[in-house]
Every structure is written in structure tokens, then in C-alpha cells.
Amino acid sequence: MKVFMAVCMLAVAVRLAAAIVVPSAAPCALTVGFYNGKCGNVSVESVVYDTVKAFLDADKSKGAALVRLLFHDCFVNGCDGSILLDNSTTNPSPEKFAGANLGIAGLDVIDAVKAKLETACPGVVSCADIVVFAGRDASRYMSNGGVNFDVPAGRLDGIVSSSVDAQNTLPDSKADIGKLIANFAAKGFTPEELVILSGAHSIGKAHCSNFDDRLTAPDSEINADYRDNVLSKTCKSAPNPTLANNIRDIDAATLGDLASYVVPAVGGDYLDNSYYKNNKNNLVLFNSDWALVGSNATLQHVNEYAENGTLWNIDFAQALVKLSKLAMPAGSVRQIRKTCRAINY
Ligand code: HEM
Questions:
Q1: What is the pLDDT of residue 4?
Q2: 2-170+326-335 belongs to which CATH class?
Q3: Does 188-322 carry CATH code 3.30.420.10?
Q4: Contacts of 200 (CB under 8 A, 6+ apart)
């Protein structure tokens, strides 16, 4: 305990001195309101929220991107900003180069927040915390306030980012239920939490290469009209095009008769429990989505969240907080990067 406190205090002292590297094994405990009073008279969380809101007002697709960014950063070696790192001469293949990170976006939002905060208080706010705050704020925005929660902060940035780690760790959209459950269990998540977090697929889009296995799935696993007239046609329309995750966000002409299954939402592209209703109708994009109704371990939770959107909002918020607490491996080198795309030298 004494060692933990000593290292933790060192980290705080280093932050205050705006120095760079904290070569510690034990991170500080994360706390809600961590940055209160640490950035002059600037509210760090307000800067993040205002910046995210401005970007999303201009382009709502960035909302889904930021929610996914939180997941992909935190799942691979903990929340450490490693998804943000560009390739360099010393690290030619960072996480963002992994196939599992195809379509990753929203990094411009993180850059903009970081630039503002570095101007206001250099060396204080980590990129890892910005990713988590931005994912939280995007969830709130995309759910019209339905998903709204405090998230603890005080993370530091890592210096390791490997496309191989990302590929080996992130779940595969073509995986079966056994693999998905094992994949989430490896990070301490239950099958119920797998179901809860997958509800994020009520927003955003995906590339054909991530759902082309569904073009040949049997009628028992996918609505045939959706498979043949929406997924197949989309995939033939261009080289690896994208399609909305939620049928609600597909234009009516493409949907045809399937439009009767659309779960309406205020403003479209809306983070809510429609994912579970679509899933029960065999109208979800990935095999990993459908797999949740194909197993008793998860089907009961799909049914529960299809029925109760308010419960899903609460449980999704809790699951995101749990995701945001995934920590870097013990002994990792920690720092507060000057720019989120490169480690400090
Ligand atoms: C259950 C395991 C999961 C698998 C296999 C999976 C897989 C995928 C894939 C393949 C895409 C499409 C990427 C593309 O083609 O561009 C995607 C998109 C997305 N995923 Fe997941 N995902 C999973 C869980 C999650 C979780 C836990 C979250 C967040 C809490 C999440 C949030 C999103 C969002 C928001 C998008 C849309 C991104 C955008 O439009 O920019 N996913 N996911």
C-alpha cells in the first residue's frame, strides 16, 4: 500500500511539474472530477464536451466513431491512448494498422481537444482520458442524453501500440458466440456485458468485408430480404462499401418492405435499444450480432434489453465505465503525451 501511494504521489507531482515520463508499475486510482482545478480556470471536461458537440453538430457520423474509439483503445492493453499513435521509424505498425481497426475515425476530434488543452495547461491532460471523455460525451450526444454518466479519470498515456496486439485482442465480427464470450471474459466482462456493449451497434456503419459472410447465411439466421436486397446489393455496388449498422439508418428506397421493421428514433442514427429489437427480427449486420440471439446464455439478455430501453441506457453507461477502467499492464511506461499521435522523446 505504501509503495502504491508513493508512486501515485510521484505521478501527481510529475503531472504538476509538466514533466513527461512516469516509469511506474502502479497507476493512481481513477477519480471522478480528477481534472477539477488542474487546468487553471479552464474546465477540462467542458472543453472536451464543447469540442465533441461542435464536431458532431457538423458531422454526426463522428459520434459512432468516438464510441468505437473508446472500446478499441481500452480493450487493447487498457485505456492508454495507444489507438491514436501514428506509425514511426521505431514503430512501423501501430494498432490503427490492424485489420480489426478498419474504419477507425474520430481522431481529428481528439487532436482538436488535445490542442486546446495543451494551450490551456500543457502536460496535464492525457490522451487516454480525452478518448474516454470523448466516448462518454459522444454516447450522451448520440442518445439525446439517454446515456449520461460521470466517468473517472487520471489515466496516463502508454508508449506501446502494436497492430498484432490489436488484431489478436479485438473481437471478430465473424466469430461465433463461444469465441465472443471468451474474448470478453478475457477482459473481465460477462456474457450479459457482451450483450449490453454490443448495443453500440445501434449507430454507425460497417464495411462489407466485415459482414460478407452474412451474404450466405441461412434464412434462420438473417432476414432473407435484408440479406439479398440490402446486404448483397450494397456489397456489389463498389469496392468494399459501407452500410449503416442499423436498418433505421438505411434509406427507404433501399429498404423497401423492410421499412416496416424500422424502430423509429428522434433524428436518426440514435444510440438506443433498437439494436435488440432488430436482432430479434434477424435484421443485424454482423454474425457477432446475430450470435447473441443464437445462444441461450445471451438471448435472455437480448430479450430483456429489447423490452427495456431505460435499463439499457443505465447498464450501457455502467459497462462503458467498466471498459474505461481497463488498465495498462503493470510496469508499463506511462507519460502525458504532448501530441496524441506520437510518444514523447
Ligand atoms: C461484440 C464484439 C464486437 C465486434 C465483433 C465488433 C465489430 C465491429 C465492426 C467489424 C465494425 C465495423 C467497422 C467497419 O467496417 O468500418 C464495428 C463498428 C462499430 N462498433 Fe463494434 N464490435 C464489437 C463490439 C463493440 C463495442 C463493445 C462497441 C462500443 C461500446 C462497439 C462500437 C461500435 C460502433 C459505434 C461502430 C460504428 C463505428 C463507426 O460508424 O464509425 N462495438 N464494430
A1: 35
A2: mainly alpha
A3: no
A4: 64, 67, 68, 71, 271, 275, 316
